[in-house]
Amino acid sequence: MGFWPFFGRTPKVAVLRLSGVISASDRSFSGGLSVASLNISIQRAFSMRGVKAVALLINSPGGSPVQSAMICRRIRTLALEKELPVFAFIEDVAASGGYWLACAADEIYADANSIVGSIGVISSGFGFQDAIQRLGVERRVYSQGKHKAILDPFKAEDPEGVEMLMDIQKEIYEGFKLHVRERRGKRLAEESEQLFGGDVWTGKRALELGLIDGLGDVYSITRERFGEEVKIRFVDVPKKWFRRRLGLEAGFEGNGSFQDNFVEKLWHQLETRSLWSKYGL
Question: What start-end ranges are recorded for coiled-coil regions in this protein (predicted)?
Answer without folding.
Answer: none
